[in-house]
Amino acid sequence: DAGVTQSPTHLIKTRGQQVTLRCSPKSGHDTVSWYQQALGQGPQFIFQYYEEEERQRGNFPDRFSGHQFPNYSSELNVNALLLGDSALYLCASSLSRLQETQYFGPGTRLLVL
Amino acid sequence: TQLLEQSPQFLSIQEGENLTVYCNSSSVFSSLQWYRQEPGEGPVLLVTVVTGGEVKKLKRLTFQFGDARKDSSLHITAAQPGDTGLYLCAFSRGAGNMLTFGGGTRLMVKP
Description:
The complex is a heterodimer.
Chain A: E1 5-7, E2 10-13, E3 19-24, E4 31-37, E5 44-50, E6 53-57, E7 64-68, E8 74-78, E9 87-94, E10 103-104, E11 108-112
Parallel strand pairs in A: 2-11
Antiparallel strand pairs in A: 1-3, 3-8, 4-5, 4-9, 5-6, 7-8, 9-10, 9-11
Chain B: E1 5-7, E2 10-14, E3 19-24, E4 32-37, E5 44-49, E6 55-58, E7 61-65, E8 71-76, E9 85-93, E10 98-101, E11 105-110
Parallel strand pairs in B: 2-11
Antiparallel strand pairs in B: 1-3, 3-8, 4-5, 4-9, 6-7, 7-8, 9-10, 9-11
């Protein structure tokens, strides 16, 4: 049973570019959350997707957007990249919105130059 | 201001030593979670504490939830190099169980 998978593992972009990160949830999970983890800090909640809609959002600008597909996989898009967007982007899935336990993927490390 | 303050931020010890890390807040929580994150990996849930004063043990790890449910501690006995990692506390809120993390304690256990 595969856990949460994310792609790519690493990515280098330049300021102003756009990036798309992908996440496949754990088998049977229908809820996907995205977190940003800057170097040396704890993860910060970006948003959560359930039934193909954004259900909750953290304190992130509109440059951060996402999508969830019918197979529950998800994408995180970031437009007009800034140097400060350099971070580890983590995807987490859960069995349902009501379930407290979230399972994290290994993350995508994004470097913006 | 972080809702969850973790201390110390960094800890470097020798194999076999004991240690305690702390997670403090001025807010009351219905539960707190502890995670360990190893380099190149996402956080992995270790335990959830729910009841004030609760103590949970996971092999050499002992977790305690404060009586007032505002703080928690993690004690590791006879630390091993495999315990090296970032220890994070977190609470969940909202209809979708959005997690809010502390800044973490980075532990290095030297052989």
